[in-house]
Amino acid sequence: MMRTRFAPSPTGFMHIGNLRTALFGYLLARRMGGVFALRIEDTDIGRYVPEALDKIYETLKIAGIKHDEGPDIGGNYGPYVQSERKDSYLKQAEALIELGAAYYCICAPGEEACNCRAAGLARPEGPYAIRQLIPPGQTTFSDLVYGEITVENSELEDQVLIKQDGMPTYNFANVVDDHFMAITHVLRGSEYLPSTPKYNLLYEAFGWPIPTYVHLPLILSADGGKLSKRRGDAFFEDFLEKGFLPEAIVNYIVLLGWSPPDNREIYTLAELEQVFGIEGLSKAPSTFDLAKLKWMNGEYFKAMSGKNFEPLAAPYLAAAVKREDINRSALSLMVKDRIATLLEIREILDFIDVLPEYGADLFMNKKNKSTPETAKDMLSKLLPEMEAFPAENWESGAIYKFLTDFAEAQGVKNSLVLWPIRCALSGKESSPGGATELLNVFGKNESVARIKQALEVL
């Protein structure tokens, strides 16, 4: 049975690259009917952030990634948190010394270990580390993305396995854990390709089976560099705060380095569980395209029902619009298909509470032949009929019929009536909604008041 894992370090927020690694491991296990495990690699005490553990759980939950094995939030960590198994790593490292594949080292961190390697020290009395002994020759390994790679062992350094504080290094604990958790497929970033020969030498020294490697292409920013916290494009939480949907983020990052078999772009997580495969992975780095993510996020909004969108938009609408005499359901529907992120709600609704100052030239529109004069004529004739319109019938369908009937009675095209209304209600050349939508949002009283204000300008 296929067994994959995600092994994050609790050092901060979830990086987009790490989330993609988790997602790919999860999807591959699901498609193949395997097991997806979560392991917390917390041996780097200096970088450990206590609250980061909760962030890992929260991020995976929000993204919809469920692990089959691993620590639970209630603190039942079992064998899935490295710091809980400190003694087991030391035992395995000492076994390597017996096998002639490692040695004790009393050099200070950062110093060359040549003398210790040659001396073949017994266990020292004072502080010591344990280093891997790299043998002469070559090491060849296979990767399902990058193919077969051969490295000269002379290019590899004797890496530290156990640090002087008694904690294992990432590179050693990683190998030990993958073996005892029976991980069959190791998915990780391509930056770990250079370390893979050292891992394989450890597997071979122990006589353990070597897992199948799947190294994933890098994710680059638009300028070709790394994703950056400063630019706000590095962490999953950054995008949630910017008003992106978790489903859209997950959908987008799965396409960074993987090509679906049918060239589709919009997938649910359940659909991805059925189609994701290693055969679609690329060697080439992927570029994180914010514009593409915004487009995809907007498509998710458009596909939503108004009922499902409204609670998502509610807090953003509350921040953008303070007045209470507004039809918020209508306002929610009006913006749903016109935004790429929820944060854009405030920007496009800046005219709701306070009507911008404008002049008569706002009503000029060469396309529909509207001028300040025609606008004044239409609005002057429309105003008394609007004031007489029953407030209880003030809803989109009835409003639209009222306006089109009015245009027909005046013998003009609908646009010659709708354009000046939209300008009067928004005070802007462009707005998120047309005349009918805006009338429905503002209600009768505010709509009449804004049309009167427009007539004063005209």
Describe the secondary structure blueprint for this structure.
Blueprint: E1 3-6, H1 16-31, E2 35-38, H2 52-63, H3 86-98, E3 102-105, H4 114-119, E4 129-132, E5 138-143, E6 147-152, E7 160-162, H5 170-180, E8 185-189, H6 196-206, E9 212-216, E10 219-220, H7 236-241, H8 246-254, H9 269-275, E11 286-287, H10 290-303, H11 306-320, H12 328-336, H13 344-348, H14 350-353, H15 372-388, H16 396-410, H17 414-426, H18 435-457
Parallel strand pairs: 1-2, 8-9, 10-11
Antiparallel strand pairs: 3-4, 4-7, 5-6
Explain this structure to me?
This protein is mainly alpha-helical. It folds into 4 domains: 152 residues, HUPs (Rossmann fold, 3-Layer(aba) Sandwich), CATH 3.40.50; 135 residues, HUPs (Rossmann fold), CATH 3.40.50; 50 residues; 98 residues, Arc Repressor Mutant, subunit A, CATH 1.10.10. The chain contains 18 helices and 11 strands. Helix 6 links the parallel strand 8 and strand 9. Helix 8 packs across helix 10, helix 15 crosses helix 17 and helix 15 crosses helix 18. The longest helix has 23 residues. 35% of the residues are buried. The mean pLDDT is 92.
N to C succession of SSEs: EHEHHEHEEEEHEHEEHHHEHHHHHHHHH
Mean pLDDT: 92
Q: Which class do the helix and strand fractions yield?
A: mainly alpha
The residue fraction in helices comes out at 40-55%
Number of strands: 11
Name given to the CATH homologous superfamily of the largest domain: HUPs
Q: Biggest sheet, strands in spatial order?
A: 3-4-7
Keywords:
458 residues; mainly alpha; Rossmann fold; 4 domains; three-stranded antiparallel beta sheet; 18 helices
